Amino acid sequence: MCGIYGYCGRGEALAPVLEGLSRLEYRGYDSAGVAFFDAQGEIKTLKTTGRVQNLIAMAAGQEDAGTAIAHTRWATHGGISVKNAHPHTAGRVTLVHNGIIENFRELRAELNYTPVSDTDTEIMAALIDSEYRNDPVQAILAAQKRLKGSYALAILFSDRPGCIFTVRRESPLALMQTETGCFLSSDPSTFPQCGEYYVPDEHTVAEIIPEGMRFFAGAAQKLELAATNRTQGREGHEHYMLKEILEEPETIRRTVNRYITADGRVDFSCDGVEDSLFDVKRINVVACGTAMHAGLVAAHYFRKIAGVEVTSFIASEFCDAGVRVEPDSLTIFVSQSGETADTLAALRSVKAQGGKVLAIINRQGTVMERECGHVLHTSCGPEIAVASTKAFTAQIAVLYLTAIRMAALRGLLDAAGEKAETAALCAAESIARETLKLRPAIIRMADEIHTAKDVFFLGRAVDYAIACEGALKLKEISYIHAESIAAGELKHGTISLIEPGVPSVCFLTQETTRSRVLLSVQEVLSRGGSVYLFTTGDMQGVEDVENLTVCRMPVEKGFSAVYAEAVCLQLLAYETAKRMGLPIDTPRNLAKSVTVA
Ligand code: M6R
To answer: Which of 35, 192, 339, 542 has an alpha carbon 20 to 30 Å from 208's alpha carbon atom?
Structure first.
């Protein structure tokens, strides 16, 4: 949460920095600010509440001398106001920050400092200023010894025009040298070009000048930004969310192809993940939000295909639940961003217990990737809309591949069986593509449900996992209260909320659950509720149910149907929020990367 961006180079800095900051806006969008050296060598600061667009308007006509740092905020400490927006200044130091300083109150008392803002950030400017004796690097190193918490900082010293200093602990930070100067960003995918970039090691101070960067008290890891991992624009689509849903056939294909050999076997060796990692009896899947729902879906695969027991955990509950990590277990962490604080905390706890770990991550060069060691990649490219879509289907695909590999290693699938499973997975691309054609029918559903106060999502077994994702997607962007219910659980309480006019969305893709799901549907209909049923093309018996709105998906019964269900639930949430005229890509109170625990 929060993003920092900066540039130090020849020519003006404000334009490229504000452009970069716009690409970083998915990390927070309640206020924004920029500080730069003007032509007289003085630091000027501009701040505003609201979107980066407001800051761009504010900065029009300003002249700078080629050095600027900027920030887009998701408030944690202190409300949404101009005074709490970054950059913050104390004495000779002006800085922007992504992270949380845990001991900011103690530091305020120690320095006897009266802050202007309510943030945890401002005290760092005062602390660095108090340590500053004409040597910025020494001042930052000394200040770091007194800081507790996480930070990526970009710092200007008023007597050092044409220079930016950076340092990080836990929070992400990347640096890139271009022909005209150096960029810094919380997310390398927002750099203006592809190619080499650097991630400084924790606590390493970087000095950035137009000609390059120097590292002090540590080093930096060199990485490569590929074209597919650079943030593109909306490419003519009204919203990133729609663009990302439409990309799903391609992102599923890229993700799956990375790990399937020419003879149809699963092979993770391109990512250095060896088979010995899967020599376990139990799997834990740990993640948050949509990624956690991918884990819920995959639990069904692992049990059915690989005969292995699986527990899915909400990452924020994992540590508090005091889970004991068994030596014969593998814990899989799933994350689009690779920087979700709760998932990282759970990873650290499992590693501390000596447990085997594997991460499934979308973004490149993340903290989680470095800390986990064993990583499989979803090849989706940047996902910008706050609502996760293409990452979800790709996560499910990688988890499925993992289940296939385990089944083969345990002798439950022979070569022909493995080939048949991977072939079924390859078909997910065309399932997603065909499902996109249901959009007009889904728009009609959205027309009906957009006025609802509550919507219930029902399913059994793997379809319940999908229902959980359906409810999350709808509520996060439409602000309609949505709740997922295991269909069989309905009669144990929630059915009391069903009355005429209350809509439910139901998923049915497994023959084994058909009669019981249809019974639940009947129970809802009998109480005047309306039901929209997403089911497979070959599911029998649904037309016999009166007053049921049926949407047949272009897929047959079985596990492959989840790709169709995912696309349907995403389109339903999208079209509903669109009908309501809401800011779909940037829903209120949310940010894409949740870096606070
Ligand atoms: O980056 P991660 O996959 O770790 O993020 C996990 C959740 O924060 C994320 O899936 C969130 O629930 C999405 N906004 C859901 O659309």
So the answer is: 339
